[in-house]
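Can't attach files on this board, so I'm pasting raw text. These are the components:
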Amino acid sequence: MTSHEGATAAAGTAMTPWTDRTPAFVRASRTVWNHVVIGSCYVAAAVVVLPLGLILWHLLAHGLSGFSLDFFLSMPKPVGEAGGGMANAIVGTLIIVGLGAVVALPIGVATGVYLAEYGRGRFAAMVRYTADLLGGVPSIVVGVAVYGLVVMPMGRFSAIAGGIALAILMLPTLIRSTEEIVRLVPQSYRQGALALGAPRWRVTQQVVIPAARSGIVTAAMLAVARAAGETAPLLFTALGNRFWSLQLDQPMATLPVFIFDYARAPYDDWNRQAWTGALVLVLLVTVISAVLRITVRRIQTR
Amino acid sequence: MNQERVQHRGASADGVYKGLLAGAAALVFVVVALIVYEVARGAEMSIRTIGWKFLTQTEWDPVADQYGALPYIYGTLVSSFLALLMAVPLGIGSAVFLAEIANRRIGSIVSFVMELLAAIPSIVYGIWGFFVLAPWLRAFIEPWLIANLGFLPLFRGFPFGIGMLNAGIILAIMIIPTIVSISREVLLATPATLREASLALGATKAESIGVALDAARPGILGAIILALGRALGETMAVTMVIGNTNRISLSLLDPGATMSSIIANEFTEATGALYLSALIQIALVLFAVTIVVNGLARALVHFATGGRRDVAGAA
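---
Top answer:
Structure tokens for the assembled complex are below.
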């Protein structure tokens, strides 16, 4: 109101420069508010980074002491005896994750390629939606379902059941990242091959997929690394095993389940081993995925 | 003639190839259908026998074959809500920092940390919460809360260390990367002209961030709901730190249990058919809740970024 009157008065007389009539306290409070908002964003980012630092620190502090060759090579000791390692659990994790990968990779990669190369219609949209849906299913629910589908008919817990559960958990990541990577292959590759008279399927199989191969491998390893850390679905599929077993139709030890059991046990030595197991698991999972992400970025920027 | 045949063969090979790929894609439907079928079939007996009382009863007594899931539903909702309460302001603040304030180098360090956090297996969060966070809470934070805020029913009781508060904190740490990475994408997707226009009108940096946040609101809401979906289904970390006690308590310091933790704890020990079926029905309820929550989140993120950004890619 007042500023409007001032403006007409100024126009009536001469050209006077515009002056900021905002009360000083308003200006001051806006400045202060500005600093508060920006400052709290800094604080938020710092607070968010903090837990990772703490977790990594404690992993190293508690886990490193038990980190020895013995841990990788020896079997768990009977209750009450100190020492021992998780050799069977480490091998078991590799086997079950490998099983899962063998099942999930062909399906996931083929689906991803389908979505990228032929994925225009309603069917593809439904596949995408369903894959996302599957990605949102809690892993424990997948475990319950696999228990009913595999463990019950077989009559016992088994490495196979664990592998199937992990395969289901790998699928969504695998499908969507394969699709994204295959889409990155330049259109000119396809056009060039088609112009040379190659049929559509050979263009995909012999030009597009080889061009995307390194990216697909990365996506696959990322999905596999993620699944390696899963615990919940293994509790009632692979179950766990305190003994050495390579039989796929028998219960098998895995690193995450071992950590879970050892962490809850009332023995200090077992708790210490749980930390070491966690350190090994984190190295297995995060180092792989960190290295992969950096490679992916290199490929994308190239 | 020869050329015709070649063309014909090429076309049918194309069909076969596409068919193979589509067949693999169709397997995704089969997998989801099998999960739904199996969980529903397993829960059937419990649904028939117990009915709707299952969702409202608090008694969980396998010896007497009494099953009520209310304490677990309560535990899941409260721990997830608590996690959101902490993760949302921190996550949005960090996303704003990354998208609007930080320079490229610091930004890439923080996003690297976010990616690492997202890659750590949940069992590792669990043992950290159990062996590190719980003693801290027990020794410092919970006694302080009881002494200073004990007049609220939320902070009454005994400092156990493990319990609802611990679960909430661990869940918050676990879901922050989801909120940060998607919110950041959504903020970066808002037009720069919005910020430039508000700055040109004399807005402060904070006010122009407010304008950008306003435009990004549906996407950020989607990120939050997606994070909620994660928190609801999270199992191992929560199972380790929540205390696994079948009771509903207003106090955040008390131990409790969630839908996923009861399944993780009791599934392999469930003797009795009705017992197992009741546990599977909990899985069914959890499944249904997460599907609704995720569907909502997906639609919001899709709408906010014009389909440019997929939730799956943000994981």
